[in-house]
Structures are given as C-alpha cells and as structure tokens.
Amino acid sequence: MPESLIAIIDALPYLLQGSLVTIAVVAGALSFGLLVGVPLAIGQVYGGGLLRRFVGVYVWFFRGIPLLVFLFLFYFGLCTALGINLSAFTVAIIVLGLISSAYQSQIIRGAIQSLPEGQLKAARALGMSDLKAISFIIVPQALRLSIPGFSNEYSILLKDSAVTYALGVAEIMARAHFVATRTYQHFPLYFAAGIIFMILTWLGVKGLRLLEDKVRIPGYSHN
Amino acid sequence: MTAPILRIENLSKRYGQREVLKGVSLEVDKGDLKILIGPSGAGKSTFLHCINYLVKPDEGRVWLHDREIHPERKRELYAYRQKVGMIFQDFNLFDHINAFENVRIGLVKVKGIGKEEAGERARLELERVGLKEHIHKYPAQLSGGQKQRVSIARALAMDPEVMLLDEPTSALDPELIGEVHAVIRDLGNNGMTMIMATHQIGFASSLASEIIFMENGLIVERGTPDKIFNDAEHSRTREFCSKITDLYGER
Fold it and tell me: Contact A126/B154, CB-based, under 8 Å?
C-alpha cells in the first residue's frame, strides 16, 4: 500500500472526530443564525424606519468584516478586554452565527417579500394582530421558500468553519494540519480533509433537498 | 328603525397627489345588501378596504352599532375586524394550509377556540358552501370558484355581522361564477348584511337592496336596482350601466 494511503487511513478516525466538531460548529452557527435572522428579516420588512435602519447597519457590519478578522477581534480582543472566558469552540459558534444571521436575514427577507401582499391582508381581515399574522401565515411560508437559499448558506458556512482552526478549534482542518506537520504527509492529509468537506457539503445539501420536498405545499410543483 | 349596523362617514384616501376617495358616507342596516358599481379606479375597492382599515383612511369615521371604531386602539380594531368579514377579488387563501385549516385558523388563533371545536365549525362552514369533499385540499389544488367559496367559509366561521365583498367573482372563469353567486345569494337570503363591489349587473339587480354608483372617488348616484338601471338621473350612471349591460349580458 502506498505510504500516502496509509497516512490517510491512520489519520482517518482522528479526522472524523474533527468532522463531528465541524458539524457541531456549523449546526450551532446555522441555528443561531436562523434564530436571529428571522426577527431581523421581519424587522426589516415590517418594522419602522429606525428598526429598518438598525437591521441595515447590522447586516452591513457582519457582512463587511472578514471572518478571520472577526474571530480574532472577538476571541483575542473582546473576550480579553471584557475579561470573559469563552472557549474557542463557543466563540466559533457565536461569530459564525452572527455572520450567518446577517446572510440568513436577507434570504428570509427575500422570501417574505416574494409572498403575495394578500396573505397578510387576509390574516388582518380575520382579526389577527400583525404578530400573529407574521408568525402563523408569513413565516411558515417564507421559511419554505428560504430552503434553497439555506442550502447555499450551509455550504458556505461549512467551509468557512475551517477558518476557526486559527483559534484552535479541533475541527477537520486543525486536525489535518496537526497530523500533516507531524508526519510530513501534507498532500494526503489535506486531500482527505477536502474530501470530508465535500462529503459533508453533499450530505447537508441533500438533507435540505429532502426537507424541501417534505414540506412542499401540495399543488405546487415545477415538474 | 333601529340604529344602522354600520355607519360610515366621510371616508377619504389619497395616494400622493391622487385622491382615490373623496369623502364617502354610507349607512348599512341589518340585512341590507349594498352593491357598489362603477368603473375601475372609481374607489370601490379602496372604500371597502378603508371600512375595515386594511387601508388606513386619511379621514372619516366608522361606527359599528353606534360604537365608533378607533383603529389606533389595536385590540378594538382586531375585535372589529372579526365582526366584518372580508372577501377579496383574488381569494387570498393561506397558501400553505389546506381548506379545512384555512377556515379553522381564525377560530383557533384569533378567537382562541379549541382545535376540536373549531374543527367542527370549520367542517360545517365548508359543508355549507358545498365543499365537503374538498376540505383536505390545498389552495393550489382548488379551482377559482372553490377557492372563493373557501374564503367565504373562512369569513363566515368568524360569525361576522357584516361582509365586505370586493369583486368576488371578477377573477373567475364565467362558468365558475355561478357557484360563488349561489353561495352569496344564500347568505343574502339568510339575512347577512353585505356591501359588495361587482360588475355582475344581473346578479346585483336581482339581489341588491340598493345600488350605489361610484366614480372618481365619489358616490354619483344611489337607489333601487330598478331606478339605477332603468331610470337613472345622471347621464354618467346611464352610460356606465348600458356599457356594462352590453359587457356582462342580459340582466
């Protein structure tokens, strides 16, 4: 067996453990992003001038700073300055989540704005408050329409999560780097890391596709 | 006479420079069926939307049973809207839930009725509009006429005292208009108070207690169907009625 293959096989359990860390970071950040992104989108579409401006600045801010800068700023800068002790793992989720919330808010905003105006009108006509109309009528439809966008966001976030190795999060990239520098098997290790990322991308996108089919509204089809 | 169910005074609405509604007043008694006719852009739809404050009028007041509506008091506004059912030209069914849930959702989420009891009521209302077989279909699986009947059932489930119908059949294929008209006729026969904008002259004249001809944001003329269609005072009314009779056939 070639040496490179042996290097991959030897490192595989270690790398796969890292993929669990990657999955945890991505799942955490996506959920965080969704939880914050939905209210942001609602605020931007239905809110008053001040709220809309706030969301605009928020999105600008978190889409404007490079991930690595933000990670360092938060972990080495903010946490030290405020004297809070957060693990690199937690910081990775918060930072990726904040950035993702900005992107997700725009996915969801697009979905909300693509809904016919009559949906909200009809809900109001029944006597629903705006909060109820948005929660029961608008959001369930907007989230369905957002799934293709989420699929994009997931793929990007998954790969961005590799950057968190710079903080020492023991995800796939960090582990590949660690083994590679120790064994000098750079090519096989990074190759394996790349393949694992590709498989994770495929799995996630596939999963979202299944979800999309599962929650598709009967009667709507483009086939 | 007792007090009118609905009293509308001097509703006005402008969009920028354009005055869409120039102070329209109307009193509606129990069991009335007021029919609004007039060319598009006359303000019929805006008028209906202003009555339940889906469009915020610039001026004007509305009373339900002598109680003035203050739209800035949200709770009162929501309670008022439950009493005033609205039927839209393009149905506006909630697309992500089926017919049954469309009718039930207001009962559950607005009136706070338990799911089971609300479900019973929803089933009853859907049966009443002849959709027993279709209650589990989603809006995209229903024909236009069926959608509009679901939307009527949805409004009726809230026990409205007045119904506002904004051209309920103008988005429908001609052969589907009849089924919706039958439901509305039934409502009228059961004493439902309604204000309806429509171009269906034949239907209007057979059912209306009063025809109201609007143009340029104003009421031009009003009267019994017989008067408006056969003996109108204003030339514009006569002109419009003859044009629309040509278009929509014999009355």
Answer: yes
**Range A22-171 classified under CATH 3.40.50.300:** no
Instruction: List the one residue out of A25, A158, A11 whose CA is nearest residue A91.
Output: A25
pTM attached to this predicted model: 0.91
Q: At B51, list the tokens.
A: 């009555």
CB-nearest to A125 from B52, B109, B140 is B52
User: What single-letter DSSP state applies at residue A73?
Assistant: I
Q: Which helix (H) or strand (E) holds B15?
A: strand B6-15
CB within 8 Å: B106 and A127: yes
The answer to whether the Cβ–Cβ distance between B110 and A127 falls below 8 Å is: yes
Query: Where are the domains positioned within chain A?
Result: 22-171
A83-106: burial string, b at 16+ Cβ within 10 Å, e else: eeeeebbebbbbbbbbbbbbbbbb
B95 close contact with A: CB closer than 8 A: yes
Q: Distance between CA atoms of A122 and A143, rounded to whole angstroms? A: 19
What's chain B's Rg over C-alpha atoms? Answer: 18
- Nearest Cα of chain A lies from the Cα of B221 at a distance, in angstroms, of 29
Is B92–A122 a contact, with Cβ atoms under 8 angstroms apart? Answer: yes
Residue matched to tokens 């997700």: A104
Q: Residue A28: how many CB atoms within 10 A of its CB?
A: 18
| Residue A96 CA neighbour count, 13 Å, CB half | 31
Determine the residue of chain B that is closest to A144 in CA distance. Answer: B96
Q: Report in angstroms the alpha-carbon separations of A10 from A16, A22, A177, A195, A207.
A: 11, 20, 14, 16, 29
> What are the chain B neighbours of A131 within 8 Å (beta carbons)?
none
- In single-letter form, the type of residue at position B142 comes to L
Best of A115, A119, A124, A126 to disrupt the B interface (most B CBs within 10 Å) is A126
**Per-residue pLDDT for chain A (223 aa), expressed as one digit of tens each?**
788 889 889 899 999 999 999 999 999 999 999 999 999 999 999 999 999 999 999 999 999 999 999 999 999 999 989 999 999 999 999 999 999 999 999 999 999 999 999 999 999 999 999 999 999 999 999 999 999 999 999 999 999 999 999 999 999 999 999 999 999 999 999 999 999 999 999 999 999 999 999 999 998 776 6
A interface mutation test: which of B73, B95, B102 has the most A CBs within 10 A? B95
**What distance in Å separates the CA atoms of residue A128 and residue A122, rounded to the nearest whole number?**
9
Give the distance from residue B85's alpha carbon to the nearest chain A alpha carbon, in angstroms: 7
At B173-222, the pLDDT tens digits run 888 999 999 999 999 999 999 999 999 888 888 899 999 999 999 999 99
Nearest CA in chain A to B110: A128
